[in-house]
Amino acid sequence: MDKYLVENESQIKEALDWALAGGKSLSLAGNSTKESLGRPIQADAELNLSSLSGIELYEPAELVMQAKAGTRLSDIEAVLKQSGQKLAFQPPDYGPLLGGQEGQGTIGGIFSANLSGSERIKAGAARDHLLGVKGFSGRGEAFQTGSRVMKNVTGYDLCKLVCGSYGTIALCTDLTFKVLPKGEKARTILIFGLAEKKAVEVMRNGLSSRHEVSAAAYLPGKIAAETDIDHVSRAQSSVTALRVEGPGPSAEYRCATLRKEFDAEGPQDELHGHNSEKFWKFTSDVRPFLGQGTIWKVSIPPASSPAYIDKVKQACPGIEYYFDWGGGLVWLKVPEEMENGGETFVRNFPDGGHATLIRGNILLRNTISPFQPQDPVMTLLMEKVRAGFDPKGIFNPGRMYAMSGDV
């Protein structure tokens, strides 16, 4: 497959005209840190957008930023940090998890895959923070949608469609998104030794309390021991974590009050500042699962996650797991030798859910659907939406689901 580095919009337009005239297809890439997400793409050429980088607008007082799609997330976060601000949905860095380097992911890739970290449960998903998009449709037409403020819309909200489309609807060149102030202080409460069912109950109570818990996760003892945070690894037991942040006195008061409320649940400890941040990066970036193994991301009703993981462990005793989002997100690492990556038991939900294959070899990604299979009605709807923006299917063909032709 030929690869072309594009540096401006005129070059993109030329490439699209070439593809449309010749019936060609295009693979869209930035720094390729998420190339292995989804089905392998069989395209005629690759358009590399990594040179489309740079922050074009940043107004801290208005809590808004605009950046080129190829801008590295690490560069954006460094600029925000100088002003005491952040991307509230805590975008994860899957580079090391997928065999790449840390800090190379782009803002375009984050929104394209709609990736959010541990704070999603409070702040919302990536798509909830995207205000505007500029780019090209599969018809070769330039477009600009959205604005610099949140507002009601009628018809298609293209920002929402672009997020999670994995580049199958449009080619985005510029993204406008909201940012938020970073809490002055961050504290993480650790409760040791809880079983899964009790941990989910504690996380539910913490998240529904008046103390504004911003993240909640559960690490089994084996996973907790792999952290490089002494307070966590030396406990030699499971760890249930609750995060609070905000002005110093407020964060300290809420943390102390939560500890009193959960005093009867088991031994406790507390992480401050750098260690707290390190813990949630470990969790959001799926650092426990670096190396070998097939990785699944399972979204499920939090109350169902303990029963679900019990069934999974019975089907595959060698599986590793942990909970995020208060139990609403289950990360699974399945031994590579499992047939079809363990899809049969991974997608056997007791009360609804969906599973996405995050890491798997090419054969597996060609054999099963990396994304949760859709019913016929939803499949038809998705195809109609895609065909409305990319009627010839030139963008990342087949990356999410097998193409069924124009609708």
Strand order in the sheet with the most strands = 4-5-9-7-8
CATH topology (fold) name of the largest domain = Uridine Diphospho-n-acetylenolpyruvylglucosamine Reductase, domain 3
Show unreliable segments.
149-155
Average per-residue pLDDT, rounded, comes to: 92
**Total tally of structural domains:** 3
**Strand count:** 18
Our count of helices gives 14
CATH class of the largest domain: Alpha Beta
Gyration radius, rounded: 22 Å
The outline comes out as globular
Q: What share of residues is helical? A: 25-40%
CATH architecture of the largest domain: 2-Layer Sandwich
Distance between the first and last residues' Cα: 27 Å
Strand content: 15-25%
Largest sheet: 5 strands, antiparallel
Secondary structure class reads alpha+beta
Task: Report on the architecture of this protein.
The protein is of the alpha+beta class. It folds into 3 domains: 1-182, Uridine Diphospho-n-acetylenolpyruvylglucosamine Reductase, domain 3, CATH 3.30.465; 185-284, Alpha-Beta Plaits, CATH 3.30.70.2190; 287-367, Alpha-Beta Plaits. It is built from 14 helices and 18 strands. The strands form 5 sheets. A 5-stranded antiparallel beta sheet has the order 4-5-9-7-8, sandwiched between helices. Strands 12-13-11-14 form a 4-stranded antiparallel beta sheet. A 4-stranded antiparallel beta sheet has the order 16-17-15-18, with no helix packed on it. A hairpin with a 4-residue loop joins strand 4 (55-59) and strand 5 (64-68). The radius of gyration is 22 Å and the shape is globular. The model is unreliable at 149-155 (pLDDT under 50).
